[in-house]
Amino acid sequence: MGRFDGKSIIVTGSSSGIGQAALIAFAKEGASVVVHGTNSERIEKTRQLLKEASISEDRILVVQGEIQKEETLQNLVSKTLEKFGKIDVLINNAGIGSGKGETESTIENFDEVMAVNLRALVLAPNRYSKNKSTKF
Which terminus of the chain has fewer Cβ atoms in its 10 Å neighbourhood, N or C? Predict the structure, then answer.
């Protein structure tokens, strides 16, 4: 029996890195998990890692999309509720850097970084808490 048996956990940006490691750890402890990312190859690799860890397909949901977009936020909520019936934990892990040096940075780069790293962080819990069955 795992520490997260029966729990439904969303980890944004979980198709690689720290988010992926956290997602797999939660799944190994019994959670149903939502894999989120923008890169389909990384998402599929994460799904494969979950399968290799003996996580059944009925405990895995994939939602692909850019976290700063309203449609992605709504899909994370609606698809998770549809498949698992609830959202117990939300980990806002998705984040980006501009990839530009000081001389190459533009206001557009700044706006994109803020949309992913800050705007989504503020909006995501709002979207989830609108559902009465979800508590944060």
Answer: N
Residue 135 lies in a domain: no
Instruction: Give the residue-averaged pLDDT of 86-110.
Output: 80
Query: Mapped to the 3 state alphabet, what secondary structure does the chain carry?
Result: CCCCCCCEEEECCCCCHHHHHHHHHHHHCCCEEEEEECCHHHHHHHHHHHHHCCCCHHHEEEEECCCCCHHHHHHHHHHHHHHHCCCCEEECCCCCCCCCCCCCCCHHHHHHHHHHHHHHHHHHHHHHHCCCCCCC
Q: pLDDT tens digit string along 71-93?
A: 999 999 999 999 999 999 999 99
Domain residue limits at 116: 8-129
